[in-house]
Every structure is written in structure tokens, then in C-alpha cells.
Design goal:
Chain lengths: 361, 44
């Protein structure tokens, strides 16, 4: 699927027509997501009825797998693409609604721990990826994009940085392909490693949020482990996302200082423009629940709405992962990303284990 | 394909809202619907 590595574009034309263009793809996402949910239920029921010992495969994994099989075996017609591209919209909607399931005190406690870990993670990841980029003689701006993508928040950060540091489309596509391919790998390796290490839900969720670059994959990897781990993964990843403006600003200033990017005149406006606004929505929703704006049943309903939104996201994660397209992007950026991500995963695991011992996650 | 936080959706009046803003607006519209029991006991 070519769109897995291309940059977003804004549809032009009548808003109603643009809206109608989304319908087939959104229905496909909903169909795949719901099939995942039905499969989880039926496979478990069948295994139980026949007294089979069968691992419980969550709807998250089914939805991703169905999407992966479709996108890698059949050519998805073009009219589905605009709707499939909305998967990130459903992700952000789901995250804001998930705010209802957090008590503000928990957000502040876990958020402050994850903020400390995020600052350490970002600093070390940036240094590590820059070093690897130089070692493998990657182009300097491609190295910058890979460093930003692996330290902050994957594809969104790369796209935000592309304009700010005036990078090539080709470099951005390389960096996005590397982040997406490694995110797909992390989806399956992180939960397996965590099960092997018998990590608790909070520690694992924190690790997934810190170690996996793209928000959709981090959310899915968290939910694959457990519901509670999924919540923590979203919180840690959201904290990381909130740092996007600072990191992109630093790189924009660096490249502008070398005369290879536009000068940033208003730093505060730059930071606000790059700040992911859905983080504010998430916090405000949590604040409303803290002020008892919703009854217990209503909070449960909001949590369920969040799960429905994530269902579409997980289907989109599978659908936009095309192994053939990713392999066309060249080996060197992937190798740099791969080595970097393994080191970052080990590093963040060490950070989480350390924080667990010190602060008792 | 992923979208940036600054990706915009054009409207007929020429003004634009980011993807984030649309997500936040829809989330709070849903929250209002739940709060005033227009959406009740959403199943999972």
C-alpha cells in the first residue's frame, strides 16, 4: 500500500464529497475491527466447548492480523484509501475518550513518573540515533528525521519535522517506512518479551509507551497485553507526544543556524502549532470525571466508546502495513532504525525496571 | 498512512481545523450525549 509511506495530503473539493469519500474505507475499518471482536469471542467459545487449551487471542491481534493479510495479499481499491487514512483520527478520538477512565490523581502520579522517564528516553534516543546515523553515513537530515521519529512519536513527529527542517520527501518516506516497519515488529515482540519477564501491567504499559514510536502501535501493543496495560501505554505515549514541539523546535533552530531551514521567528507560536491538541482533550476529560461530571455508568459508556474508536485504529494499523512497500525503501535506514530501536527498547526496559524498584509502578 | 497534528481539513468557508481539533470536538459531543443520556449504556 503506497500510502503507508507517503505524506498526508489535504483533499480539496466540496466538503460533502470529501466526507462521502471516507465512507468506504471507514466501513472497511469497522468491518475488520468488528470481525476481530467476533473472532475473539467465537474462537474462545469453540476452544472452550471442545476442551482445547488455546491461548486467548485478543480482538486487537485479530483486527491487526486481518488487516495485514488483506493489505499484503490483495490490492485494496483506491476508493478505500481516504477512509483507511482516518485510522489516526479514531486513535485520537479514542485517546480523548479514554481520559474518562483516568482519575486525575493517577494521571498526575503516573504522568509525572512517565514525564521524568520520557525526558531521559528522548535525550538518550536522540544521541543514540544521531551517532548511528553518522556511523552508517546516512544523510544528515535523514538522520535528524530518524532521531526525531524514534525519540518522540513516530510518523507524526517526522511529518511535523519535515517542514520545520526543510527535509526531502524521499528522506521523510525512508524515515516513516523504518518507523512503521519497526513498529509492526514491536507489536509482536514487546508483549512476548514482557510475558517472558512476567512484567506487571503498569510496568509493561509504561515500557510500551516509552519504547514503541508510533502512537497507534504503542496503544495496540499495550492493549494486546491487558486492558490496564493499554491505559498506561496510552498515558506514557501521550506524555511523549506532548514533547514533540520542543524536539522539533530544537532541530529547526539547529538547521536554521546552518542556513538549511527557515528561521523560527516566534518560538511560542511554533510550540503551540506543533503541540498535539488531543492531549489537552484527554486531560480535560479526566478533569471532568474528577469533578464527578459523569455517573459510574456513564464513565463505563465513555470507556466503551473509546474501545470502539480503537477498534477502527487497530484495523488501520494492519491495513497500512505493507511489507513489500517497506522493503523497497532501502536497507540502510532500516538497519540504523533496527539497531537503534533494539537499543532504545533495552534502555527503556532498564528505565522502567529501575523506576518500578524506586517508585513502585 | 499517518497524519500530522497540523494536518488540516478544509471547510467550505475557507477556514480549517486540525485533525486533533475534530477528534476533540467529536469526543466532547459524544461525552455530552452520554452525560444527557442520549447515548445510554454503550455496550462492548
Amino acid at each position: 500500500m503506497a500510502s503507508s509511506i507517503s505524506l498526508p495530503h489535504v483533499e480539496s473539493g466540496h466538503p460533502l464529497l470529501n466526507g462521502l469519500r471516507l465512507v468506504p474505507g471507514v466501513l472497511l475499518l469497522a468491518g475488520i475491527g468488528y470481525s476481530g471482536k467476533i473472532l475473539e469471542h467465537s474462537v474462545n467459545a469453540y476452544a472452550k466447548a471442545h476442551h482445547w487449551t488455546f491461548p486467548n487471542i485478543e480482538y486487537v491481534l485479530w483486527a491487526i492480523l486481518i488487516g495485514l493479510v488483506i493489505s499484503n495479499t490483495v490490492a485494496i481499491p483506491r476508493f478505500f484509501q481516504p477512509g483507511i487514512a482516518t485510522y489516526e483520527f479514531w486513535l485520537k478520538l479514542g485517546i480523548v475518550l479514554l481520559g474518562a477512565r483516568f482519575v486525575l490523581a493517577d494521571v498526575l502520579k503516573l504522568g509525572s513518573i512517565s514525564l521524568g522517564l520520557v525526558v531521559i528516553e528522548i535525550t538518550l534516543s536522540l544521541a543514540l540515533m544521531t551517532l548511528l546515523g553518522r556511523l552508517f553515513k546516512l544523510k544528515p537530515k535523514l538522520t535528524s528525521l530518524l532521531a526525531i521519529g524514534s525519540s518522540v512519536c513516530g510518523v507524526s513527529a517526522i511529518i511535523a519535522a519535515k517542514g520545520a527542517i526543510d527535509a526531502d520527501d524521499e528522506d521523510s518516506s525512508f524515515a516513516i517506512a523504518a518507523v512503521l516497519a519497526l513498529g509492526a515488529l514491536a507489536l509482536f515482540t514487546f508483549p512476548a518479551i514482557a510475558h517472558g519477564l512476567h512484567m506487571n501491567d503498569v510496568s509493561y504499559g509504561m515500557w510500551a509507551g516509552l519504547g514503541i514510536d508510533n502512537t497507534a502501535e504503542a496503544t495496540a501493543a499495550g492493549a494486546l497485553y491487558s486492558d490496564a496495560a493499554g491505559k498506561v501505554a496510552v498515558l506514557a505515549k501521550t506524555t511523549r507526544n506532548a514533547m514533540i514541539g520542543f524536539v522539533v523546535l530544537a532541530y529547526a533552530l539547529y538547521w536554521a543556524g546552518r542556513g538549511q531551514a527557515e528561521t523560527v521567528t516566534n518560538k511560542a507560536a511554533f510550540l503551540w502549532k506543533k503541540f498535539p491538541k488531543f492531549v489537552l482533550g484527554f486531560l480535560f476529560m479526566s478533569l471532568l470525571v474528577g469533578f464527578h461530571a459523569f455517573s459510574k455508568g456513564q464513565v463505563a459508556s465513555l470507556g466503551n466508546l473509546s474501545k470502539w474508536a480503537f477498534l477502527l485504529t487497530f484495523a488501520g494499523v494492519g491495513l497500512r502495513t505493507n511489507i513489500r512497500d517497506m522493503s523497497k525503501q532501502g536497507l540502510r535506514p532500516f538497519i540504523v532504525g533496527f539497531i537503534g530501536e533494539i537499543l532504545i527498547a533495552c534502555l527503556t526496559l532498564g528505565l522502567v525496571v529501575g523506576a518500578n524498584r524506586m517508585a513502585g509502578l | 498512512m499517518s497524519t500530522d497534528t497540523s494536518t488540516t481539513t478544509p471547510s467550505s468557508k475557507g477556514t480549517s481545523l486540525s485533525l486533533d481539533a475534530w477528534a476533540v470536538i467529536l469526543a466532547f459531543l459524544l461525552a455530552l450525549a452520554v452525560r444527557f443520556d442520549i447515548l445510554k449504556n454503550v455496550p462492548w
